[in-house]
TrEMBL record:
Biased composition (Basic and acidic residues): 44-56
UniProt superkingdom: Bacteria
Region of interest called Disordered, as start-end residue ranges on this chain: 34-56
Record-given protein name: DNA-binding protein
Amino acid sequence: MDYITTIEMSKIWGISSRRIFLLCSQGRVPGAEKKGKTWLIPKDAVKPTDPRKKNR
């Protein structure tokens, strides 16, 4: 499985790397692993939905 960092994923998902760090630490990104200080995220991970927004 290929992994990418929070900085690389922030460019794909269009949100900040800090927000992705928080999502990983909350367990909302399936398959994310922490190695040292860095979160490694599977390349094919799906962006978690924002529970604050309602689907219309």
